User: What shape does this take?
Amino acid sequence: MKPSSFNFIDLFAGVGGFHIAMENLGGSCVFASEIDAHARAVYENNFGILPYGDITLIDEKEVPAHNVLCAGFPCQSFSKAGNREGINDPRGTLFFDIIRIAQYHQPEYLLLENVRNLAGHDNGNTWKVIKHNLDEIGYNCPEFPFIFSPHYIGIPQFRERVFILCKRKDLDDIQPFIFDKKNIPESSISTILSENSEIENLKKYQLKDEEIKLIEIWNDFFKICRNDLPGFPIWTDYFTDDIDHEIVNSFPFWKKNFVYKNIHLYLSKKKQFNQWLKKARKNTLFYGAKAKFEWQAGKNPEGDIWNTIMQFRPSGIRVKKPTYFPALVAITQTSIVGELGRRITPREAARLQSFPDDFKLHIEDRSAYKQFGNAVNAKLAELFAAHLFERNDRVKEIINR
Ligand SMILES: C[S@@+](CC[C@H](N)C(=O)[O-])C[C@H]1O[C@@H](n2cnc3c(N)ncnc32)[C@H](O)[C@@H]1O
Assistant: This one.
């Protein structure tokens, strides 16, 4: 393959994180497959290629010849046997669709991406099965997959993912990928944020009045605890001195531990917390997960809670330092930028995944957030492809961007 012009295929294509990466390196897409109709429409709108649907229904002989196979395949379980017959999860077959296509076409390179937990999934069995099958069809890949996050190169998103790089065995070995995590640059969320004045339908993303009041309530909590912010989750249902110990003792250890920590915290400033709770419980949102709080913004914070990134999660309101965003996910827990009083927009989510600003988004925000939550970060896909193709100048450029 010529380093600067090659053909690639994009399996489990989503909205095309790999497509952007490969085109940046001079690649042309000759085939894509994606089962979700909304993602397919976005892909076609941006790249002029309508992906084929369900990969399990596509005969490998119908797929055009290619130099590089890219796939961000869904995570899955494999049985210990590690063969097709031994799969115990219906989604487990999807990895073998990659294998059957690669086995037939024998492209020079494969570049696969998956969730962080794949590396240790099922006590390492999942990785063993993947490596074994790649080896069987004629590919070298490193002993362990690379684990990498956009924030390692200054993109403000914490999103550790595994990248599996494979080279056909008749080519030379894959060079070691050397990256010193001690030199991770400081990232800043401002690099992906738009000015409020630039945002269409700004109101849609701004916090509602009752949400602002709810955050103010937690800001008051923050002020009470400022010098000694607890690292354990705050569960205000247990801010009481009238607890049924028999019930608590029936809880699993981890839960019992948190319950007693909450009771001790409450008793340490009972008068202040009683006043605070009286006011808090007047807010219509202060119940369930919104009456729980997870401080994850470190010790000695500057300013107040409005200087953080927040998420309304099923486990409580989670608060983080404003250095990088938590991983975008397919479900809706869109991050709130405290300082701006709003959630991030789909365009900002696209930037977190290194999609360019001329990328045409799905018209419905819900779909757009989901699609970027599923996507591979395009810059990291490019980084690992460049490494695989030994385009070392490009690797350096991306790392030192
Ligand atoms: C982790 S996402 C990959 C996203 C992609 N890398 C991107 O940058 O947008 C996995 C994708 O596989 C798709 N998928 C799941 N099962 C499939 C199948 N049987 N055939 C084709 N696509 C499938 C899902 O709809 C999802 O978009």
